Amino acid sequence: MRVFMQTQTAGADSPRYYQLVLEQDLLGGWTLFREWGQQGAHRASSKREQYLERDAALAAFERARDAQLGRGFRIMFSQGFDGPR
pTM for this one? Predict the structure, then answer.
């Protein structure tokens, strides 16, 4: 499951982005990857969180997505689900 979001910018500023990826690991757990930064910049920040159960991982994914939507990000690409809930 993946979602890529960006902010809208005015002027010469590059947009900011936020990406969430939720994947099942080889041991049956779930990993939530977060990456964010300025589009086109050389540096980005990232965070990885481990979950034992799919429901907890999916809830964390949705909370992170909704928090960024509340900060003005817009979904540019999503894969693996039917969009925002």
Answer: 0.85
Using left for φ > 0, alpha for ψ between -120 and 50, and beta otherwise, residue 56 falls in alpha
Would you list the DSSP string of 42-53? S-EEEEEEEESS
- Does 85 reside within a domain? no
- pLDDT 10s digits, 43-55: 899 999 999 999 9
Into how many domains does the chain fold?
A: 1
Sheet holding 16-24, edge to edge: 44-51, 30-38, 16-24, 2-6, 74-79
- The count of residues in the chain is 85
Give the integer Cα–Cα distance in Å for 40 and 32: 23
Q: Do residues 35 and 44 lie in contact, with contact meaning Cβ atoms separated by under 8 Å?
A: yes
